[in-house]
C-alpha cells in the first residue's frame, strides 16, 4: 500500500481504543488541574512546565481518540506521535530543575555534578535527541533510503536513554550522599546539610524519585519499541501500560514533588535569590563562602 494511502490501522498496527483514550484523557486532566492549583498557590514554582507537558499528553490522547473515529486519515497518528514525543521532555526538564533545587537546598557539596549543569546539560541533550529522532523519522519516510532514517532515529532514542540513565545515577548518588551526610565533592568548609531533613521533605523527594523512575521506564520501552517495532506493533496494551501509565504517574507525583519549601531557604545559608525559578546558580566562590 502506498505511503500516501496509509490509514490509522496501518500506522498504529491497531485501531486505538476509544474507551481507554477517554479514560487516559480524563486522568491527565485531573493531574493537570492539580498542577494548575499548585501554580496558583506558588507562582514561583515550575508547575507551569508540568502543565505544558500534561496539556501535550492530553492533546496526544485526544488525537488517539479521534483516530478511532476517523480510521481513514493518518493526520491524527502524526499529531499524536509528535506531541507524545515532545510532552515528556517538559516532565524531564522539571526533574532536572528539581534536582538542581534540592542540590541547593541540602548543599551543592552533596551533588556530584555542579547544580547548574543539571538543567544545562540534560535539557540540551533532550532537545538534541528530539531533533535527531524527528530528522531520522523524516528520512525513514523517504523511499530513497528509509533504513538510514531508521538508524538515525534509533540513535536519537538510544542517546536519550543513555542520558536518562546517567541522570538517574547522579540522582541516586545525591540521595545516598544526603542520607549518609557524606559530600561527594571536595569543597572547603562545613560538610553539614544546609537544611535538616524532615518527613515531609523526604516524602517530596520520594515523589521526585518515583517520577524519575517512571520517565526511565517509558524511555526504555520507547527504545525497545523503536528497535523492534514488529514485536510491539499490533498490540495497544504495551503502549498503554508502558507509555501512558509512566507518564500519568510522572504527572501525578510531580505535584507533591513541587513541595514549596525547596524554593525558600529554610535554615539555609544559600541566598534567597537562588530559589526563584528565574535565578542563576551559585558560582564556585559563592559555594565556598557559604560553606565556610
Task: Describe the protein.
The chain has 292 residues and is an all-alpha fold. The protein has a single domain (3-270), classed as Up-down Bundle (Rhopdopsin 7-helix transmembrane proteins). Helices cover 71% and strands 0% of the residues. The protein is built from ten helices and no strands. It is globular. The chain crosses the membrane at residues 20-40, 47-67, 73-97, 117-136, 148-179, 200-221, 241-259. It is a multi-pass membrane protein. This is RTA1 like protein.
Radius of gyration: 21 Å
Structural shape: globular
H/E order of the elements?
Answer: HHHHHHHHHH
Estimate the helix proportion, in percent: over 70%
**What's the CATH class, please?**
Mainly Alpha
End-to-end Cα distance: 70 Å
Average pLDDT, all residues = 83
Low-confidence stretches: 1-5, 265-282, 286-292
CATH architecture: Up-down Bundle
Estimated structural class? mainly alpha
| Count of helix runs | 10
User: Which sheet architecture does the biggest sheet show?
Assistant: none
Number of E strands:
0
Q: Find the CATH topology.
A: Rhopdopsin 7-helix transmembrane proteins
Number of domains: 1
Strand content: under 5%
InterPro entries: RTA1
Protein name: RTA1 like protein
Organism: Schizosaccharomyces cryophilus (strain OY26 / ATCC MYA-4695 / CBS 11777 / NBRC 106824 / NRRL Y48691)
Transmembrane segments: 20-40, 47-67, 73-97, 117-136, 148-179, 200-221, 241-259
Amino acid at each position: 500500500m502506498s505511503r500516501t494511502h496509509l490509514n490509522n490501522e496501518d500506522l498504529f498496527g491497531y485501531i486505538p481504543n476509544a474507551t481507554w483514550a477517554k479514560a487516559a484523557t480524563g486522568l491527565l486532566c485531573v493531574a493537570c488541574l492539580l498542577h494548575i492549583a499548585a501554580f496558583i498557590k506558588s507562582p514561583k514554582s515550575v508547575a507551569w512546565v508540568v502543565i505544558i507537558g500534561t496539556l501535550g499528553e492530553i492533546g496526544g490522547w485526544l488525537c488517539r481518540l479521534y483516530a478511532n473515529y476517523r480510521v481513514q486519515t493518518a493526520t491524527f497518528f502524526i499529531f499524536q506521535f509528535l506531541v507524545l514525543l515532545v510532552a515528556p521532555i517538559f516532565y524531564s526538564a522539571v526533574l532536572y530543575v528539581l534536582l538542581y533545587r534540592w542540590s541547593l537546598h541540602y548543599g551543592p557539596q552533596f551533588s556530584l555534578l555542579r547544580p547548574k549543569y543539571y538543567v544545562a546539560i540534560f535539557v540540551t541533550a533532550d532537545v538534541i535527541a528530539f531533533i535527531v529522532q524527528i530528522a531520522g523519522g523524516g528520512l525513514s519516510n523517504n523511499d530513497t533510503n528509509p533504513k538510514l532514517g531508521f538508524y538515525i532515529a534509533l540513535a536519537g532514542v538510544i542517546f536519550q536513554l543513555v542520558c536518562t540513565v546517567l541522570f538517574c545515577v547522579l540522582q541516586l548518588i545525591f540521595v545516598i550522599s544526603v542520607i549518609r551526610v557524606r559530600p561527594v565533592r571536595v569543597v572547603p568548609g562545613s560538610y553539614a546539610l544546609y537544611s535538616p531533613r524532615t518527613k515531609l521533605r523526604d516524602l517530596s523527594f520520594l515523589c521526585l524519585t518515583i517520577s524519575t523512575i517512571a520517565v526511565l521506564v517509558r524511555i526504555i520501552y520507547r527504545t525497545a519499541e523503536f528497535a523492534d517495532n514488529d514485536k510491539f506493533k499490533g498490540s495497544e496494551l504495551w503502549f498503554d501500560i508502558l507509555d501512558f501509565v509512566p507518564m500519568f504517574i510522572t504527572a501525578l507525583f510531580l505535584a507533591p514533588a513541587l513541595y514549596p519549601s525547596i524554593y525558600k531557604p529554610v535554615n539555609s545559608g544559600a541566598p534567597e535569590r537562588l530559589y526563584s525559578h528565574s535565578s542563576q546558580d551559585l558560582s564556585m566562590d559563592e559555594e565556598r563562602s557559604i560553606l565556610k
